[in-house]
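Q: Here's a chain of 178 amino acids. Please give me its 3D structure as tokens.
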Amino acid sequence: MARLIVLLRGVNLVSRNRIAMGELRETLEEAGFEDVGTYVQSGNVVLSTTLSAKRVRSDVERLLVDRFDLEVKVVVRTRAELAKVVERNPLGKVATNPKLYQVTFLDAAPTAEVLRKLEAVAAGKEHVIHIGRELFAWHPDGVARSKLAALMAGKGLGVTATARNWTTVTKLLAMADE
């Protein structure tokens, strides 16, 4: 049985795509997933299953439509993949505030053109590093007004993407190890 991290994109943002985490856990358990846990209200799930990450992604997306009438994209990582993200931590020496240090999880690697756009829009002391299917970004002046963060949050990446701050990333790894 593998531990997987399931990241829902764009849930519980103001009044958009509202899902109670208790209901989400219940739905996933009823669907046969085990050891289901959630973290905060932004669609972070850790669960156990024998299914592949690809199958979990499609099953969870279908469950969200069937149960909640929400078309929400999902990105899935194995416990080992998330551990590699934490181990790499390419901006760890400069990212001094974990709330301003984000990892954007992608369902596929971005194109070279998209990476050039991200690097061009990074302002001041902002940094963005691409490794595999993750983008690591440091926003020392805040995420809310960052053009880089806005570009990374939109559909301009050409792939499904969802960002989590470093505190959430490390907490999800800890949950996967429980």
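Q: Can you summarize the key feature?
A: Residues 53-68 form the longest helix (16 residues).
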